[in-house]
């Protein structure tokens, strides 16, 4: 069985999350910040112990880091494989891919576009696509691996 059979017709690159998803992340993050400010005004947080302050600080830091990477994350599909930038980069080379399938969230496709789940040996890696071109390439990848699976039977 040839494991390195898929090569995209061209390099496709773009944001990992759609504008709609980024807008929803922005609204959610702003709402959390407003809620945190409201809590800080109503409770004497400075009187609490170090562990409570540290927990709140790291929760706010994690929100800021996650929000930053939601806005900046990109995905690239090229002749080498698939790469998605994030706090840590996810990369899968074509020679390591055993199967690929698109999955979606039922009844919420308008908010959460389909994702590509790639199986490499014993692990699974999920990639997000934020543009139509990337989602079309995901469909090509998924179809190619489904056809390979059917041909192998």
Automatic annotation (TrEMBL):
Keyword tags: Membrane, Transmembrane, Transmembrane helix
Membrane spanning residue stretches: 20-38, 50-70
Protein name: PH (Pleckstrin Homology) domain-containing protein
Organism listed in the record: Herminiimonas aquatilis
